[in-house]
Amino acid sequence: MTSAAPSVPIIDTHIHLFDPRRPQGIPWPPKDNAKLYMPALPDRYRSIAVPLGIVGAIKVEASPWLEDNQWVLDLIEKDPIMVGCVGNIDPGKPDFAKHLERFHKNRLFLGIRCGLLWDRDLNRDSAKPQVIADLKLLADAGLGLDTANQSPELIKTTLRLTDRIPNLRIIVDHLPQLNPPTDPPVLKAYMADLRELAKRPQVFFKISAVIRRVNGRVITDPAFYRERLDLFWDVFGPDRLVYGSDWPNSDNWAPYPQVLAVVREYFTAKGSAAAEKVFWRNSIKAYRWIHRDPKQPKA
């Protein structure tokens, strides 16, 4: 299955960029991953994405190294298909405010990502007053927070953060990757938390990391994913979902055209208005990304 250029433009809100040829190397991906351990730069992404109707992309952090924020900003400035980046500054650590001020001076810096990655734990750290204070600085700067690598506990933590920092825009990454709990009481609590989050207009949910491998075989039939996508559609509706590919990490499962085709078929069936919201309109609200090319749509 392939994906021809869609009838609506697409802003891909989740790609990763890195270059293992740098003298200092890269913290991710590992060298033993032959599918990923090669340069993933804007020109390579553009060659794949533009024929599919993608007009803009947001780079999401793939490194805990502070100076990689600057490396990314310098890199994406050179290619207008890149409409912004989500960086990595660790809330609660010394000099968070100084680093935030530094990177926020660049219009392409849209926010930070934290959660369950790089040996960090937002569930634990969100109980620390300094972490909350730093996230309030993020919110007051008009920047967003991507939460990484979902779990039922992280969903609950996200809900608590919206109570403590109501003006913080939060984007929940890779929710399709999370298998719902099988224990009935845990599932009930998890679904209650999702429905409560759905009431918070400052929270968005990323349709990314959708493709799965079952018994060693990658499933690319859109029908296989319909029940999972129906759940997100029913809970969050068309106004809170954004599309992200997770490229090139998605290459571990399938080539980009197949990754897009599964999501595109589902949402185009919902009608052009819904498809526009998921594929680009909602991303403007979620990220406040920077228009850099006439092909990039405006609300």
Question: Which features would summarize this protein structure in a list?
Answer:
single chain; 299 residues; alpha/beta; TIM Barrel; 8-stranded parallel β-sheet; two-stranded antiparallel ribbon; 10 strands; globular
What's the name of the CATH homologous superfamily? Answer: Metal-dependent hydrolases
Please indicate the percent range of residues in DSSP E strands (runs of 2 or more): 15-25%
- The CATH topology annotation reads as TIM Barrel
Number of helices: 10
* Topology order in helix (H) and strand (E) letters: EHEHEHEHHEHEHEEEHEHH
Molecular shape: globular
- Number of spatially distinct domains: 1
Poorly predicted ranges: none
Task: Explain this structure.
By secondary structure, the chain is an alpha/beta fold. The protein has a single domain (10-287), classed as Metal-dependent hydrolases (TIM Barrel, Alpha-Beta Barrel), CATH 3.20.20. Helices cover 38% and strands 16% of the residues. The protein is built from ten helices and ten strands. The chain has helices spanning 42-49, 68-76, 96-104, 122-125, 129-140, 152-164, 184-198, 222-236, 256-268, 272-287, and strands spanning 10-15, 54-60, 82-87, 109-115, 144-148, 169-172, 203-207, 212-214, 217-219, 241-243. The strands form two sheets. The chain has an eight-stranded parallel beta sheet. The longest helix has 16 residues, at 272-287. The chain starts with 9 loop residues before the first strand and ends in a 12-residue tail after the last helix. 42% of the residues are buried.
